[in-house]
Amino acid sequence: MLTKTQEQIFFVIDFDSTFTKVEGLDELAAIALAGNKDKDKIVSEIKSITDRGMLGEIGFAESLKARVNLLPANREHVDILVDFLMGKISDSFQRNRDFITQNQENILIVSSGFKDFIVPVAVSMGVKEENVYANTFRYDAEGNITGYDESNLLSQDKGKVKLLQQLNLDGDVFAIGDGYTDYELRESGLANKFFAFTENVERQKVVEKADEVVASLDEFLYINGLSRSQSYPKSKIKVLLLENVHPKAVASFKSEGFQVELLKGALDEEELIEKIKGVSILGLRSKTNLTKKVLEHPNASRLMAVGAFCIGTNQINLDECERRGIAVFNAPYSNTRSVVEMAIGEMIILTRDIMTKSNKMHEGIWDKSAKNSYEIRGKKLGLVGYGSIGTQISVIAEAMGMEVYFYDAVDKLALGNAKKCKSLEELFGVADFISLHVDGRKSNANMIGEKEFAMMKDNVIFINLSRGHVVEIPALVKALKSGKVWGAAIDVFPYEPKTNDEEFVNELRGLPRVILTPHVGGSTEEAQANIGEFVPSKLLQFMNNGSTYGSVNFPELQLPALEGAHRLLHIHQNVPGILAKINGIFAKHNVNIKGQYLKTTNEIGYVITDVAKEYSDEIVEELKGIDNTIKFRLLY
Ligand SMILES: NC(=O)C1=CN([C@@H]2O[C@H](COP(=O)(O)OP(=O)(O)OC[C@H]3O[C@@H](n4cnc5c(N)ncnc54)[C@H](O)[C@@H]3O)[C@@H](O)[C@H]2O)C=CC1
Ligand SMILES: O=C(O)CCC(=O)C(=O)O
């Protein structure tokens, strides 16, 4: 934590949409009107009046009266609202609870909302009750809200200005809020600075007037050199997520305060070079290629970590990432089961010739016959690639009565009664079904071509859910047309459309007994939700504490958090003597090391150091200046 004395600064903070994520009165209306047939109409009317007031389009007093008149609420509704608001405190305020409690004398909540719901929420975060300035409801004997105290300055036009005049604060005043009335404090000269707070809403008219725009309380504290929980505010760190990754991923990054952009489709090289500018964390799936050209472009200079929201990482130049100190993570098991189920299902569909029968039915043809329809039980399944997916298929296929054979480039232990083959030729010579589950390494390009199809048994059923470049499509088309291959299920293609709007062009289109799917082996709700949690958790661990556990291109390091320590990360080219130089700098500055891990690959070294004392800018500059340094980061 960084600190600076701030006795002479008063922090005047708005409540609705700043301290909390929502507008209290709008939410109170929604609660009070639950079950009312006109709820949506009245709530949207109240919201629109709130917005017009916030933008300064109508006077505040007028806006407040109109809203309260529309509100059929009572004390019970207010209690429900308080519970609701407790869960809606802005993320960055929650992260900086310590700042609030440590500065409670100087923190004032000044709001045109109502103390009835503001006080319990603000006090729960360390604000002093007497420092909450807001309106108060009037209730009748039954507890129904009948109006509010109209003598309260905050219920009047320019109420915040009038209140601050009356308070006559002795010191600098920083006003923080999302609305025009917060800016009016600056306009009137009562606040030295106005910070437009955009974590929850961004109003152009307010932002234009601000001295500074802050996307979070972290950013406000950072700009002003104040004590805070994030040494560098995450709202200044850009996360770019491509290919429509699961909303859980977006939520994970947003809840930690990162600036997140989500794009539906993949990007080509030039588009990625454009979009990667200023991005620190990139998330992609199988269709965006992260090439050397992209990585060496100056636009990619801030990139720290990449998440492959899938299993395969062949689309990422892992070596170049490593050389540049960019850690890459993937989800090695999150969609395994989905691919397995699809492969098994497709074997059954093809061997029962269900596609042909279903197509005929759609044309009105009732062709009840057993011709060309077989069970998978007792048949021989040949798996090429016996990794996570291959082995899981092996177990399930055996349970369904199949005889399993496999071939893998490395020596793998056979599960159950599966039989290991010494070569592809041996496997192809025996299998009735061939299913590919190799990874997408470059050397696997075109591993199945004319020669390999010729080795297979006649009428084989062929499945490829691995990578498109593994199979030569013209050779497959020929094998299908000649009858060598009876049926096929293909999910991956040498070229795949970038978005759902692009036409799929491929010679396999229109061939009978060929199941074509748009690379959806891993696309189930379950798998995508798993991946949407797993990959961000890895990326966040790397960003927050430097852990590279599970990285596919980085030395794997994990140092448990040490009480009271400051953590520094150093990534360097793997040449002798770097650790000595790092520790020499700590020794020179009399900084005690509490914990330290170093691990290297052929290319790079990665050191996590926890030190006991406050570090100075000088130490940081010296550490960055060590020859062969690739990246340096202070975490906390
Ligand atoms: N269609 C889809 O949506 C999905 C496709 N995949 C693809 O499936 C692949 C396999 O996934 P996992 O089983 O999890 O990977 P894995 O890494 O656990 O297994 C791959 C296996 O293939 C073997 N292998 C590689 N090249 C070989 C070769 N030339 N000959 C024989 N064996 C070879 C490896 O030794 C390894 O055992 C992924 O790399 C990915 O490309 C994965 C998930 C979804
Ligand atoms: O879902 C995706 O985009 C890719 C799935 C895949 O091929 C993988 O996980 O390797």
TrEMBL record:
It is an enzyme of class 1 (oxidoreductase). The keyword NAD applies. One of its GO terms (molecular function) is NAD binding. GO terms for biological process: L-serine biosynthetic process. Pfam families: 2-Hacid_dh, 2-Hacid_dh_C, ACT_AHAS_ss. Coiled coil: none annotated. Its EC number is 1.1.1.399, 1.1.1.95. Keywords: NAD, Oxidoreductase. NCBIfam families: HAD-SF-IB, PRK11790.1. PANTHER family: D-ISOMER SPECIFIC 2-HYDROXYACID DEHYDROGENASE CATALYTIC DOMAIN-CONTAINING PROTEIN-RELATED (PTHR43761:SF1), D-ISOMER SPECIFIC 2-HYDROXYACID DEHYDROGENASE FAMILY PROTEIN (AFU_ORTHOLOGUE AFUA_1G13630) (PTHR43761). Catalyzes the reversible oxidation of 3-phospho-D-glycerate to 3-phosphonooxypyruvate, the first step of the phosphorylated L-serine biosynthesis pathway. Also catalyzes the reversible oxidation of 2-hydroxyglutarate to 2-oxoglutarate. This is D-3-phosphoglycerate dehydrogenase.
